[in-house]
Amino acid sequence: MTGPHEIVDAEGLAPPIGFAHAVVAAPGRTVFLGGQIGADQHGEVASPDVPEQLDRALANLVTALAAAGGRPEHLVWMQIFVTDAATYRARLEDLGRVWRRHLGRHYVATALLEVSALFDPAARVEIMGIAVIPATVGSSRPTDPEAGP
């Protein structure tokens, strides 16, 4: 997936696999996406399976982004929190398919962090993101802070 932002692979660093070293965001509206877990619309986490939780968490992230007027290609930064990094690494092939289903091959500046627990005890994955919706994308929201509400 291509987008309006410039993906930068820094010379002298190991080649990125599944992420970007840096992203230069196009001018636009910044959207901060709160942590999304693999829960349904009622807040229930249905499965302990990491790929299934990632699938739902990414779907929730994309839904929140769409509510703000954005699309997956507008993402510039993500943090993925997991309660077991070894399990995540062991399931990379499955997780890659899930990622591509929601985000295509749009790999942004990303960090994966192992944490001892997440707020919901059933959650094993939580995702936060930042997107920049280009000024050229139509919206009822002003891009100029001086423009007012």
CATH fold-level assignment: 60s Ribosomal Protein L30, Chain: A
Query: Low-confidence segments, ≥5 residues, pLDDT <50?
Result: 139-149
- Supply the helix-strand structural class: alpha+beta
Gross morphology: globular
By CATH, the superfamily comes out as: RutC-like
Helix-strand pattern, N to C?
EEEHEHHEE
- β content, as a range? 25-35%
Beta strands, count: 6
What's the architecture in CATH terms?
Answer: 2-Layer Sandwich
Q: Describe the biggest sheet?
A: 4 strands, mixed
Q: Estimate nothing, just give the exact number of structural domains.
A: 1
What value does the average pLDDT take?
A: 87
Give the CATH level 1 class: Alpha Beta
Number of helices: 3
State the distance separating the first and last CA atoms.
33 Å
- Helix proportion: 10-25%
Q: For the CA atoms, what is the radius of gyration?
A: 16 Å
Q: Order the strands across the largest sheet as they lie in space.
A: 3-6-4-5
Question: How would you describe the overall organization of this protein?
Answer:
The protein has 149 residues and is an alpha+beta fold. It has a single domain (18-135), classed as RutC-like (60s Ribosomal Protein L30, Chain: A, 2-Layer Sandwich), CATH 3.30.1330. The protein contains three helices and six strands, in the order βββαβααββ. The chain has helices at 50-67, 85-90, 92-103; strands at 6-8, 22-24, 28-37, 75-82, 109-114, 125-134. It has a four-stranded mixed β-sheet with strand order 3-6-4-5. The chain has a two-stranded antiparallel sheet with strand order 1-2. The radius of gyration is 16 Å and the shape is globular. It starts with 5 loop residues before the first strand and ends in a 15-residue tail after the last strand. Residues 139-149 have low confidence and may be disordered.
